[in-house]
């Protein structure tokens, strides 16, 4: 009886309609399906990369990847108050005034974490003589402008694939690194056929803002969703990260220049804990042997801003001529 059953089982396993044959057929078909899907996805990925090369202009990772020079005199970091120095022909104007090569890597809503990553990525391909960091106190008080901003897919819509960037992102965040490598953000970019130029640069940069109290309040709430006094631990964390950034720069023999850019006096008066912030940051920079220039209240007439707190074209050019060009060209 046992022998009969064994013989029947062996006979079924050898038949074309036996279970092992069906399993092999399923595995083969599934593998073929995955292979075809992977090929199609790679084709879409390659198309997205081509669109980046065609339409990208202001994405900071793209700018590093395509930067034409190996060495730069100045790399500019910061948040939106620094991005205006790259609007239209402003960077070229500053290069002409200072006789320098300048790459502006500042990012709207970019805090210490984002700027540190951008600098590390830049230094993986290039060299710089000095780092110019435009300081905004709001980025020291919230994850929103740091880790959370780094997880914003829009930051990578126009970021071309680069193994060096992938490695840095994986070290920073496994999730962010994998999302960048897979490329969903660039493939699903709804503005893939449009240049990545912000509305502020395209039009508002030439305007003059008329203050509206309600808009000023909304802007302040947006930048400081939680009062600084309630986020002491966050401040200490990002201050420490900022000090590490300064230390890394100076130890590599680069000049570190921290600048607080102009903002209207009416706005400066409403910033929470700003005097304490200024004193703390100045003490840290002095201790680390870095430069500090508080220009918050210079060249800050209302006519020089296109919204509550961002310099317009006239304001940028005036700031260049009277302050920034002199700071950059002075030698220690």
Q: Overview of this structure, please?
A:
This protein is of the alpha/beta class. It has 2 domains: 52 residues; 272 residues, SGNH hydrolase (Rossmann fold, 3-Layer(aba) Sandwich). 54% of the residues lie in helices and 9% in strands. It has 16 helices and 5 strands. The protein has a 5-stranded parallel β-sheet. It is elongated. The N terminus is likely disordered.
Secondary structure: number of strands: 5
Distance between the termini: 98 Å
**Major β-sheet profile:** 5 strands, parallel
DSSP helix fraction: 40-55%
Beta fraction of the residues? 5-15%
Question: What is the spatial order of strands in the main beta sheet?
Answer: 2-1-3-4-5
Question: What can be said about this structure in brief?
Answer:
This protein is α/β, with parallel strands linked by helices. The chain is built from 16 helices and 5 strands. The chain has a 5-stranded parallel β-sheet.
Main attributes?
16 helices, Rossmann fold, disordered N terminus, 332 residues, alpha/beta, 2 domains, single chain, 54% helix, five-stranded parallel β-sheet
Draw up the topology in text:
Elements: H1 2-14, H2 19-55, H3 60-66, E1 71-78, H4 80-83, H5 90-98, E2 102-104, H6 112-123, E3 127-134, H7 147-150, H8 163-172, H9 174-182, H10 184-187, H11 199-202, H12 213-223, H13 232-251, E4 255-260, H14 265-268, H15 274-287, E5 291-294, H16 313-329
Parallel strand pairs: 1-2, 1-3, 3-4, 4-5
Helix pairs in contact: 5-16, 8-9
């Amino acid at each position: 009886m046992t022998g009969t059953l064994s013989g029947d089982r062996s006979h079924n396993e050898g038949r074309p309609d036996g279970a092992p044959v069906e399993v092999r057929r399923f595995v083969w078909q599934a593998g073929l399906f995955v292979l075809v899907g992977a090929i199609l996805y790679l084709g879409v990925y390659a198309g997205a990369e081509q669109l980046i090369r065609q339409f990208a202009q202001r994405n900071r990772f793209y700018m590093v990847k395509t930067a034409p020079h190996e060495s730069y005199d100045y790399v500019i970091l910061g948040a939106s108050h620094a991005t205006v120095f790259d609007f239209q022909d402003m960077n070229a104007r500053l290069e002409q005034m200072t006789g320098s090569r300048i790459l502006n890597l500042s990012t709207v809503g970019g805090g210490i974490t984002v700027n540190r990553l951008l600098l590390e990525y830049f230094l993986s391909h290039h060299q710089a003589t000095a780092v110019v960091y435009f300081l905004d106190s709001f980025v020291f008080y919230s994850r929103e402008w740091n880790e959370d901003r780094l997880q914003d897919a829009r930051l990578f819509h126009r970021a071309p694939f680069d193994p060096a960037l992938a490695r840095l992102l994986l070290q920073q965040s496994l999730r962010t690194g994998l999302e960048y490598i897979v490329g969903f953000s660039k493939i699903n970019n709804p503005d893939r056929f449009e240049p990545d130029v912000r509305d502020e640069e395209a039009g508002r940069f030439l305007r003059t803002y008329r203050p509206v109290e309600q808009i000023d309040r909304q802007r302040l709430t947006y930048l400081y969703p939680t009062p600084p006094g309630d986020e002491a631990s966050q401040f200490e964390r990002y201050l420490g990260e900022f000090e590490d950034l300064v230390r890394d720069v100076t130890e590599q023999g680069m000049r570190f220049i921290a600048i607080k850019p102009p903002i209207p006096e009416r706005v400066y008066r409403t910033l929470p804990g700003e005097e304490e912030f200024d004193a703390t940051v100045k003490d840290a920079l002095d201790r680390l042997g870095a430069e500090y220039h508080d220009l918050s209240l210079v060249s800050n007439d209302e006519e020089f801003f296109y919204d509550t707190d961002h310099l317009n074209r006239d304001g940028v050019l005036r700031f260049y001529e009277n302050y920034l060009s002199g700071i950059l060209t002075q030698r220690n």
